[in-house]
């Protein structure tokens, strides 16, 4: 169970984590200067931060020009004071200026001064993207030592640490706290709590696991336990899903193998059928070819025979014609010889 701290102990722990409040040299300096010096002290000491801010004021027409100029220009002005950290710091200064501009439609925070603590929010509720410490400090600086300002981020952290007084209205809660925090500690209160809210204790999803006050925070302790339960649940859910996925994969693999076997069998049957048909077709084609070859051979043989017969006949006829002609020639010769023999001699 979280060991609850007293408010003073919590503020000391926050000072240890986020440092003492760092603002412009003189309390009466413009609140915007307090804000920007506070931002720059994240990288350099106050004296150097003050000089860097002076250089920015002298290099631009006004701070609004610094807000809208290319970041490289602001980086160049800050480089002599912040060295390699100048670009990071230039972005932080630009974010702070933009936050003020978005919240106030200008760059003048002085209207925060002289207001009642519960009236501050009517002018500016928060600087949501600016570094926490400086952003918290300007609200308290605007009030001076007379009152304690209790902004939403501070109330959230105190509520989670179970250090927020229980009262009927926000005004009474603030007044109860005002009695607990001495005027000298009010800037430390604002700086530490808002720095903490900005660094880890966000409204949504606070980073309790990285919080230096976790051991003393009932909300954080419950939140970490809840996340652990959620994490285990999620792990169990993922394990079940993984198991289901593996089973589904195995089932799908089995079904695929079964289907492949059926398909292979079907294909083998179809292939065998096709092979049979192809063999039958080849046999039929072979028979047709053989039949054709036989018929062609018979036709050629018949043709050769007919030609031989015709040649034989022609030879026979030629022989007969020649024999006849020979016989006729012989008969004519005989006839001529007989006629010659009958004719009387002229002697
Ligand atoms: S443990 Fe979590 S809820 Fe508690 S103060 Fe830290 S960040 Fe905030």
Overview in brief:
This protein is mainly α and 347 residues long. The protein contains twelve helices and no strands. Iron/sulfur cluster binds next to helix 9 and helix 12.
Percent in strands: under 5%
* Backbone shape: rod-shaped
Can you count the helices?
12
Instruction: Kindly identify the CATH topology of the domain at 7-216.
Output: Endonuclease III, domain 1
CATH class descriptor of the domain at 7-216:
Mainly Alpha
**Rg from alpha-carbon coordinates:** 59 Å
Q: Which stretches are poorly predicted, pLDDT < 50 over at least 5 residues?
A: none
Biggest sheet statistics: none
N-to-C terminal Cα separation, in Å?
188 Å
Mean pLDDT: 94
Structure description:
With 347 residues, this protein is mainly α. It is rod-shaped and about 195 Å long. It is built from 12 helices and no strands. The mean pLDDT is 94. It has a domain of 210 residues: Orthogonal Bundle (Endonuclease III, domain 1). The relative contact order is 0.08.
């Amino acid at each position: 169970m979280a060991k609850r701290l007293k408010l003073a102990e919590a503020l000391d722990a926050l000072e240890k984590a986020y440092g003492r409040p760092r603002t412009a040299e003189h309390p009466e300096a413009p609140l915007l200067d307090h804000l920007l010096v506070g931002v720059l002290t994240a990288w350099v000491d106050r004296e150097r931060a003050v000089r860097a801010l002076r250089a920015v004021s002298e290099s631009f027409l006004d701070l609004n020009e610094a807000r809208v100029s290319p970041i490289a220009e602001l980086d160049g002005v800050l480089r002599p004071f912040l060295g390699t950290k100048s670009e990071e710091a230039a972005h932080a200064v630009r974010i702070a200026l933009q936050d003020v501009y978005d919240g106030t439609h200008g760059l003048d925070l002085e209207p925060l001064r002289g207001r009642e603590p519960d009236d501050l929010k009517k002018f500016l509720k928060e600087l949501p993207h600016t570094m926490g410490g400086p952003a918290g400090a300007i609200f308290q600086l605007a009030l001076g030592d007379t009152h304690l300002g209790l902004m939403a981020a501070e109330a959230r952290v105190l509520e989670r640490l179970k250090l927020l007084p229980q009262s009927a209205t926000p005004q009474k809660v603030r007044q109860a706290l005002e009695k607990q925090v001495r005027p000298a500690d009010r800037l430390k209160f604002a700086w530490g709590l808002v720095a903490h809210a900005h660094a880890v204790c966000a409204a949504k999803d606070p980073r309790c696991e990285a919080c230096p006050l976790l051991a003393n925070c009932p909300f954080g302790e419950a939140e970490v336990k809840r996340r652990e339960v959620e994490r285990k649940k999620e792990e169990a859910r993922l394990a079940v899903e993984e198991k289901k996925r593996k089973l589904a994969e195995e089932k799908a693999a089995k079904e695929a193998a079964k289907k492949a076997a059926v398909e292979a069998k079907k294909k083998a049957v179809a292939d065998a059928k096709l092979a049979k048909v192809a063999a039958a077709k080849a046999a039929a084609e072979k028979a047709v070819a053989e039949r054709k070859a036989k018929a062609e051979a018979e036709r050629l043989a018949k043709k050769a025979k007919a030609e031989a017969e015709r040649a034989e006949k022609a030879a026979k006829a030629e022989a007969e014609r020649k024999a006849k002609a020979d016989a006729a020639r012989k008969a004519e010769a005989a006839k001529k010889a007989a006629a010659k023999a009958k004719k009387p001699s002229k002697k």
